[in-house]
Structure formats: C-alpha cells, structure tokens
Design a protein that fits this description.
- The protein is α/β, with parallel strands linked by helices.
- Among the domains are: 260 residues, Ribonuclease Z/Hydroxyacylglutathione hydrolase-like (Metallo-beta-lactamase, Chain A, 4-Layer Sandwich); 83 residues, DNA Methylphosphotriester Repair Domain (3-Layer(aba) Sandwich).
- Helix content is 40%, strand content 17%.
- The strands form three sheets. It has a seven-stranded mixed sheet, with helices on one face.
- Strand 10, helix 9 and strand 11 form a beta-alpha-beta unit.
- Helix 2 crosses helix 3.
- The protein is elongated, with a radius of gyration of 39 Å.
- The protein starts with a helix and ends in a 17-residue tail after the last helix.
- The structure holds zinc ion (2 copies).
- One zinc ion (ZN) binds next to helix 5.
Length: 491
C-alpha cells in the first residue's frame, strides 16, 4: 500500500514526466539526425550526379571534336582509302597542339603621308626601321608622327637615295631621335639637303654604312635584307632596294629605282617576290616594268606621292599595269597615311583599297588643255577657272626645290648651280633658270623639244629639263616621240 502510495507521489510523477519528456526529446533528436543524414546523402548524390553529368558531357564533346578531326582528316585524305586507325587520330590531335603555341608574329608598316616623297616606318616588337625621310618641309610632321607612336629610337635608318624627297627631313629625324644604324646608297649628291643631313650625322656623332647586296638584319619579327645596292649614273637607279619579311608576308621597297636598275635585278635573279610592293618612284612610268612586276608578283601596291603633284605621279601607265594585274592599290595622294598589319600569315590594312586608278598625269593633260583654252583667248569669265591655275604657278616655284627627284640623271649642272649663293635651288636640275638647259621635255606626253624650239613648248609645270640628249634618253624620251618642229634627235 505504502509502496503504491509512495510510488505515485508528486515527485515520482514529476520524475516519470521528465523521463517521458526526455524520451520524446531523444526521439526528436534521432529523427533530426535521420533527416539530416538523409539530407546529406541526398546532397552528396545530387553533387555526384552533376559531376557525372559534366564528365559525360565533356566526353561527348571531346568525342565530337575527335569525330570532327577524323572528318577533317578524311576530307584531306580523300585519296587514302585505308580506314583511319585510332592511333592516327590521336597523333593528328597531338600534331595540332603545338600549332596553338606557335608564337604570334607582329609587324606594323606605316606608309606615312609626307606629300611628294617617301617615308615608311617599320615596327615590330618594339624595334624600328625608318625607310627614307620625306621632303624637307615635313620634318615636324614626321617627328610628331613618330612621337605619337611612342617611338624614341630608330634602330635602323635606311636612306634609299639622296634625292630631296627621300632625305629632306633626315636631319630632323637624326637630331630628334636616338639612331642606331644608318644605311645609305653610295650615290653622293652635292646639295643642301645632303649637307644638312651629313651635318646632323656629325652633330650626333653618327657613322653610316653602304650595305652590300645580301646584307641583312632583324627588326623584331621582321627579317630585312638588302636586295640591290649598286651605283648608277643617276640617283634614282642607285636606290637601295630592301625586302622586309615577316613569316609568309613580305614588303619590297625600291626607292626610286627605274627601268635600268629593275632590269639588272631581274637579270641577277634577285629575290624580289613580295606581298606588298611599295611602288618605285611614286608610280612613275619610268619604273615598275612588266618584267620586274613578274618577279615581284605583289598582291598589294602602295603609292606615295602628293595630290596634284607637278610630276603627274602616279602615271596612268603604271596604274593601268597594276589594275591589269589585279593588284589591290593604296594611294597616299588620295587616302593619306596607310598602315599595314602583318601577323606573318596575312596582311590587314587600316583603310580599304583605293578604287581610283586615275593617274596624276591625266589631270595634267586636262590642265594643259585648260591652259591652251585660256591661251587661245577664250578666257573664261569664271574666276574659279583662273584661280585654279594659281596654285600650280606657285607650285612650280616651290617644287623644283623640294623635289629635285626628277627623271634626270647626274649632271654637270650641279657644279654650275652651286655658285648661286647658297640658294635652295643649287642642286636642282629641273631648275628652269639653268643656263645650260639644252632640251625641254613634256613630262606628261614624254615629247622632247630643243630649248630654243620655235614651236609650242609645254607648260612650265609640265617640263623636264635636260642638259644633254643622253639625259633625256635615260629619262625615257625617244626619237619616235620627238618634236616635229625642232627635231632634237635629228630627222
Ligand atoms: Zn622620289
Ligand atoms: Zn629620286
């Protein structure tokens, strides 16, 4: 009794209640653990499934690429009738891997707009080559261009030949930039530009080298080789010819080399082939002969000259040749500065190719007709007609000084002109004031007159001046096309 009574005391009841509560808590705990462990299991299996899914996907992908490779190979191996073995597929994909690691080649060629002249910057992996330095009035322009490109040093400076439209601003370049090696043509010209250049060399304590054919050097990823280095009687043909190669792409620069030098290069079997041809002598008809272009076989051509220049560059004949050969054309006179980018495999351009194949001499022809029209006495009342002829008159005063680069050879007039008290014109062979001028050529029609011809002489801006018949012949004038009034070649 007592025991029973004792058993159901409040403390006993409390004890039992506590125990029950504890059991319930234990049950909850167990459920929670079960739930948690189930959750963890579920989580792990989901992760597992995802991982498995990705791996499967990857396997599918790599299988697909392998299939692709098998397809490519079987396309390439059409004639191969034996089925492809797995080893072959594997070795093919192994062969592909090194291609991805092939170094990326970089070359940038800037055909800088220097008006009537040449100046080209070749840049690769921080190294630089400058080919020519334009006429003497673009020094600041060239300096600014190079500075904008972040250039402080010209590692190689090549001056193709000593005409003023190629060395005119060499003094500025030499003075303003660090210069590495200088390569020059052996042709020496006794004129202001040449002396200014030599003074700048002396000021910077620089020596120059006359390179030999076959000499070469590296500019970043580009290999530069001297294709032709020979002295002729005239500066143009004495131009250094250089080839810049980057991977499978290449550029040929021939300064103002003309038919005579071109013929020699063809006969010597010089390595002339190039993707890009920097058209010699600003597109003059006296350069870019068919035989020469057969060897160069360019895809692209770049012509550097000024719009409406007094020489009629580029000549229609040259443009017709380029067009007939389906060569994409870039023209600084119409498009301004042009940049070519090479990755060693192909070339991209900063502008689209020029569609205009109209020569500068066809413009000259028009002007001559205009002038004849005015001379006849039907002078137009329209002011624009008269003012349009004005800049040409001015140009005629200026051009002979900035552009002694003419079609004429080395002449004895240098010595004679030298006495003209330091004038800029002292080197100029096309200077109409030269007292010993014997022949006058029509630059656009290539017709030769005696200087004292009683017939009609060409307009001032359309004249070539020669001291001898030999010079005229060297510039491409022929007996067939002589004046039928004065017969300079004789009847
Ligand atoms: Zn030139
Ligand atoms: Zn020249």
């Amino acid at each position: 009794m007592n025991k029973n009574k004792q058993k159901w005391t409040p403390s006993f009841i409390k004890n039992i209640a506590e125990k029950r509560e504890e059991k319930r808590r234990e049950k909850r705990r167990k459920r929670l653990i079960k739930f948690l462990s189930f959750g963890v299991l579920l989580f792990i299996s989901i992760i597992g499934l995802i991982v498995a899914g990705i791996t499967e996907n990857n396997q599918e992908k790599s299988e697909a690429s392998l299939t692709k490779e098998v397809e490519t190979i079987s396309v390439e191996q059409k004639e191969d009738t034996t089925p492809l073995s797995i080893e072959r597929v594997i070795s093919a994909s192994e062969e592909k891997e090194p291609l991805a690691e092939e170094p990326v080649l970089e070359l940038k060629v800037h055909f800088i707009d220097v008006g009537q002249g040449d100046c080209t910057l070749v840049e690769s992996k921080g190294e630089t080559l400058l080919i020519d330095a334009g006429p003497d009035d673009v020094g600041t322009k060239i300096q600014k261009y190079l500075m904008d490109e972040g250039i402080t040093k010209i590692d190689y400076f090549v001056l193709t030949h000593p005409d003023s439209d190629h060395i005119g601003s060499a003094d500025v370049v030499v003075t303003k930039f660090d210069i590495g090696k200088i390569y020059m043509s052996s042709f020496i010209k006794d004129n202001k530009y040449y002396h200014d250049m030599l003074d700048a060399f002396a000021y910077k304590n620089l020596k120059w080298t006359i390179p030999k054919e076959g000499d070469s050097f590296e500019v970043g990823d580009a290999h530069v080789s001297i294709v032709h280095s020979k002295e002729y009687e005239d500066p143009n043909n004495s131009s250094l010819v250089i080839k810049v190669t980057c991977g499978e792409t290449s550029f040929l620069f021939a300064g103002d080399a003309e038919a005579t030098a071109e013929k020699d290069m063809v006969e010597q079997n010089a390595d002339l082939s190039a993707t890009v041809y920097h058209v010699s002598h600003h597109g003059s008809y006296t350069s870019s002969t068919q035989d020469f272009l057969d060897r160069v076989k360019p895809e692209y051509a770049v012509i550097s000259c000024a719009k409406d220049n007094a020489y009629g560059h580029p000549h229609q004949e040259t443009l017709d040749t380029l067009k007939a050969r389906n060569i994409s054309l870039f023209r600084i006179d119409l498009q301004g500065g042009i940049i070519a980018f090479s990755d060693g495999k192909g070339i991209e351009w900063s502008v689209a190719a020029a569609k205009n194949y109209e020569g500068g001499d066809s413009e000259l022809e028009k002007k001559i007709k205009e002038e004849q029209f005015i001379a006849i006495g039907n002078k137009s009342q329209d002011n624009s007609e008269t003012t349009r002829t004005m800049p040409d008159d001015k140009k005629e005063e200026k051009n002979p000084t900035t552009d002694s680069d003419s079609k004429k050879g080395k002449t004895s007039s240098d010595a004679g002109n030298k006495n003209q008290n330091g004038s800029d014109q002292k080197d100029d062979k096309s200077n109409p004031d030269s007292s010993n001028v014997a022949y006058i050529g029509n630059r656009s029609k290539h017709k030769l007159h005696r200087a004292d011809c009683k017939g009609k002489l060409p307009a001032e801006y359309n004249r070539d001046y020669f001291n001898s018949l030999d010079e005229a012949v060297a510039a491409g004038y022929t007996k067939e096309n002589q004046c039928k009034n004065c017969y300079p070649f004789g009847k």
